[in-house]
């Protein structure tokens, strides 16, 4: 009989075949939302808490024998352009993440440690490229993240699911390798018939 410790040991094969992607992006967390969540902290420090969180998660995990990559994230931020706050920095990080994943195309698993919600976009669209309709996404969040630049809230974190399914900023969508086409939307806030996000804004955190 296996001991309790043995039952919880990580499979060595799983460790070596998993890409651990550290993505400390914080610019996608809109100033409006962060200001509501942490009004007692200076805004510039509160927003960078997402980057600290990514490093904290990395430190908590057991040692990893597989590949580990860190997505370089610009230190600056910018105003709202085309309905997306810090759009230039988000595009730069997106390109860097795409380049990393292209070098690890044989990794069957991607463990992403972020960062705000939008760091999920590139890994999920990469998995959609590899697996097509065999991919299923379970999105657990306080809201469905189906905003777009047209819905009035410019925090890119709230547009993550929209980008994954091919809705939103045209330049961002053009840079993604694939979009995920779900067979249905089993949650409120999205329409099953059209398979596209509803126009309901999710900015009210």
TrEMBL record:
CDD domains: Arginase-like_1. Keywords: Hydrolase, Manganese, Metal-binding. GO terms for cellular component: cytosol. One of its GO terms (molecular function) is arginase activity. It comes from the Bacteria. Pfam families: Arginase. PANTHER family: ARGINASE. Belongs to the arginase family. This is Arginase.
């Amino acid at each position: 009989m296996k001991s309790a410790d043995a039952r919880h040991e990580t499979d060595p094969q799983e460790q070596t075949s998993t890409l651990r992607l550290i993505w400390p992006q914080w610019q996608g967390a809109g100033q409006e939302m962060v200001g509501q969540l942490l009004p007692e902290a200076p805004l510039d420090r509160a927003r960078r808490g997402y980057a600290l969180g990514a490093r904290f998660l990395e430190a908590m995990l057991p040692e990893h024998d597989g590949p580990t990559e860190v997505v370089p994230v610009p230190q600056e931020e910018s105003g709202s352009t085309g309905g997306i706050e810090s759009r230039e920095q988000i595009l730069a990080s997106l390109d860097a993440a795409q380049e990393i994943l292209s070098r690890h195309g044989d990794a069957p698993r991607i463990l992403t440690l972020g960062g705000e919600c939008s760091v999920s976009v590139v890994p999920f669209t990469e998995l959609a490229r590899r697996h097509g309709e065999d991919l299923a996404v379970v999105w657990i969040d306080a809201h469905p993240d189906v905003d777009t630049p047209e819905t009035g809230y410019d925090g890119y974190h709230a547009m993550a699911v929209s980008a994954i399914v091919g809705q939103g900023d045209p330049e961002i969508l053009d840079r993604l390798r694939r979009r995920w086409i779900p067979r249905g939307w089993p949650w409120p806030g999205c329409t099953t018939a059209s398979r596209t996000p509803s126009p309901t804004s999710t900015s009210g955190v």
